[in-house]
Every structure is written in C-alpha cells, then in structure tokens.
C-alpha cells in the first residue's frame, strides 16, 4: 500500500526574513508572491539575533492580518537595545497597547517558505533555535485576492509569534519615541535604522498591493531625523 505524500511544511516569514530572503531556511522548495494572511498581529519585543543562521530564496510574498509591531533586536546591547518586529495575538495587543488602537486596515507582509517535507524535522529545529528568544510556533491561513475575491490559498502555514511574558518583550511605544530609539541605536548587526529602511523597501517591492502605514510612517520619522542631523552638520 502506497502511503500518502507528506504535506508541505510552509513557514510564514516576516521582518528581516523579507529582506534576507536570498538567505532563506534550508531545504526550501517553493516561494511565490502577492498573497496575504489574516489572523494574528504584531508588537514590540526584544530578540536574540543568532549569527550565521541563513534562509534560501524560494518563497511567497504574503500579507498577514496583523498589527505592524516592533521589538528590540540587539540583546547584546542590554542598556540600549534596538527594535525589530514580531507578531502577537490581537487579544494580547488589546491588553498592553494602552491608547494605541488596533489598526484593522493594515496587513503585515512577509514571505511563505515551502520546505521539503523530508527535512521538516531538521528545519523545525533550525527555526526553533533561530527564534528561541520568546517565540512560539503557531498556524494561520494565507489568503490572496483572485479575480477580485479574497481566497484562502494556504491552510495552516506555520508562523512564529511573540510572547508578551518573555523578558525581551517591550510592548507599545509612541511612534516618535520609537523612531528616536531606532535612529540612535547601533548594535552588532549595524545601525538599527538600516533594519527599518531595508524592511520598508522590501515591503514596497513584494507586491503592487503591499503597504504598511505604521512601517512607512516610522520610516519617514527616522529619515526626518537623518535630515535634521544633516542640516545641523552643514
């Protein structure tokens, strides 16, 4: 009796996994563009960036219905950590967001990596190590607009979601304070603003539909700080 083929292992990557898409996870066999996912959200947290871990260039550009969140990236700089993005559940966002309303109109864009099922266990171990600082793996459906209608095109894609009970999690920050932090912070990975600029540019390039109001507003603020410094230095 022939056994049924193993289901593909699909991972939704966001944040630096968009602009580092040419260095994807091992054993990726497919990627694509212009799809969006709907159920989870984003917020602030601190993360350990593990050097040397890389991802391959075979993915789908997708959007998850999430809030564009922020997290601290450079744990080595304990006194002045930078910011990177993570996803959190909406109910968690509502508990710690303060006056920041959930932006229902926003979609967070990312990349769907389809992994060779033969290597699923190996890639899971790799990703669990890479995302070890306060993330849990959960599932979500990925959608795309086909012939003018939104349809589910990938069921139960895996996604790493931030936990608000881990020491690296920050929560919500006012946009101006967040922009100033990103503008000033430099860590082992380089200037934190480069993370922001690369992410914003990569989101623009993913699809004609890809847009993130929070991300682009933050980018404008940080670039304004750059411009202000240039004028003062002139």
Through-space gap between termini: 77 Å
Q: What radius of gyration results from the CA coordinates?
A: 18 Å
Compressed to H and E, one letter per element, the order equals EHEEEEEHEHEEHEEHH
Structural class: alpha+beta
* Quaternary structure type: single chain
Count, helices: 6
Major sheet strand order: 1-7-5-3-8-9
Mean pLDDT: 67
Share of residues in helices: 25-40%
- Which of globular, elongated, flat, extended, rod-shaped describes the shape? globular
Biggest sheet record: 6 strands, mixed, barrel
Any idea how many domains? Answer: 1
Q: Which runs of at least 5 residues are low in confidence (pLDDT < 50)?
A: 29-79
The number of E-state strands comes to: 11
Share in β-strands: 25-35%
Protein name: glutathione-specific gamma-glutamylcyclotransferase
GO molecular function, one term: glutathione specific gamma-glutamylcyclotransferase activity
Pfam families: ChaC
Enzyme class: lyase
Structure, briefly:
This protein has helices at residues 16-19, 90-96, 120-130, 175-184, 192-206, 213-233; strands at 9-13, 28-30, 35-37, 41-43, 60-64, 86-88, 108-115, 135-146, 149-162, 186-187, 190-191. By secondary structure, the chain is of the alpha+beta class. It has one domain (9-233).
Any overview of this molecule?
With 234 residues, the protein is of the alpha+beta class. It has one domain (9-233). It is 29% helix and 26% strand. It contains 6 helices and 11 strands. It has a 6-stranded mixed beta barrel with strand order 1-7-5-3-8-9. The protein has a two-stranded antiparallel ribbon with strand order 4-6. A hairpin with a 2-residue loop joins strand 8 (135-146) and strand 9. Helix 4 (175-184) packs across helix 6 (213-233) and helix 5 (192-206) crosses helix 6 (213-233). The termini are far apart. Mean pLDDT is 67; it is low at 29-79. This is glutathione-specific gamma-glutamylcyclotransferase. One of its GO terms (biological process) is glutathione catabolic process. Its EC number is 4.3.2.7.
